[in-house]
């Protein structure tokens, strides 16, 4: 479980950093259907891209910890889930967006429960192994 959680956390971090950097660099061109949205949307998109880079760096920070902090993973996954819920709300209020937004929404709603499950399983495994390690011995969590 620890390797799976670490690998998925790293993948999430690098994906967010890359996606955010593309949005900073390309502005409206990075948003399907927003090419002619104007300077306000371009400014907002680049700002949100930079924020997404920071979000990705938080995932990468979590992946580098030994053990991966389950609480941080749950918070980060919760933010991702909130983004998917926002897309779902937009779908309900305004109708179908550009087609690519639908698979993104599915990922944003489907992946957080996987992170919640992995974080909980890893936390339980650490707690159980800590109870069985003799005093004075360090446990390995890799």
Describe the overall structure.
The protein is mostly helical. It has one domain (2-31, 39-131). The protein has helices spanning 2-26, 39-64, 70-94, 101-132. It starts with a helix and ends in a 10-residue tail after the last helix. The relative contact order is 0.14.
Assembly state: single chain
- Which word captures the global form? elongated
For the terminal residues, how far apart are their CA atoms? 10 Å
Q: Which spans of ≥5 residues are poorly predicted at pLDDT below 50?
A: none
Please indicate the percent range of residues in DSSP E strands (runs of 2 or more).
under 5%
- Mean pLDDT across every amino acid position: 91
Percent helix, as a range, is over 70%
How many helices does DSSP assign? 4
Radius of gyration: 18 Å
- Structural class comes to mainly alpha
Can you count the beta strands?
Answer: 0
Helix/strand order = HHHH
Task: Give the topology, please.
Elements: H1 2-26, H2 39-64, H3 70-94, H4 101-132
Helix pairs in contact: 1-2, 1-4, 3-4
Offer a concise description of the structure.
The protein is an all-alpha fold and 142 residues long. It is built from four helices and no strands.
């Amino acid at each position: 479980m620890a390797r799976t959680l670490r690998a998925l956390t790293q993948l999430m971090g690098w994906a967010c950093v890359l996606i955010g950097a593309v949005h900073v660099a390309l502005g409206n061109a990075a948003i399907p259907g927003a090419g002619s949205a104007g300077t306000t949307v371009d400014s907002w998109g680049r700002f949100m891209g930079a924020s997404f880079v920071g979000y990705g760096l938080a995932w990468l920070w979590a992946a580098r910890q030994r053990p991966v902090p389950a609480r941080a993973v749950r918070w980060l996954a919760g933010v991702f889930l909130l983004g998917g819920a926002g897309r779902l709300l937009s779908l309900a209020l305004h109708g179908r967006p550009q087609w690519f937004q639908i698979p993104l929404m599915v990922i944003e709603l489907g992946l957080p429960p996987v992170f919640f499950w992995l974080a909980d399983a890893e936390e339980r495994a650490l707690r159980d192994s800590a109870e069985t390690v003799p005093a004075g011995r360090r446990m390995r969590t890799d």
